[in-house]
Amino acid sequence: MPDHILDYYLYAFSHLNTGGGRTKESAPHKPVLLLSVIQAYESRVLTSNQISISPELTS
User: Fold this and answer.
1) What CA–CA distance (Å, rounded) separates 16 from 59?
2) In 3-state terms, what secondary structure has residue 28?
């Protein structure tokens, strides 16, 4: 993977908006959800482009 793509994702993941500032709603779970989705994709648990809440995502 080219370095500029890795740089893009590194920046995007390190600047996730979790709502911990000026917004009324907070999403501190967003980084954990993102890691769970990545892990599910690598494990081939995700077989389509739709993600449903399942026990596999929460474990």
Assistant:
1) 22
2) coil
Task: Return d(Cα 44, Cα 22) in angstroms, integer.
Answer: 37
Distance (Å, rounded) from C-alpha 18 to C-alpha 23? Answer: 9
Give the residue from 40, 46, 41 showing the smallest Cα distance to 59.
40
Distance of alpha carbon 40 from alpha carbon 35, whole angstroms: 9
Contact present, 44 and 56 (Cβ < 8 Å): no
Q: What is the pLDDT of residue 58?
A: 64
The predicted pLDDT at position 28 comes to 77
Residue that is written with structure tokens 């920046």 in the block: 11
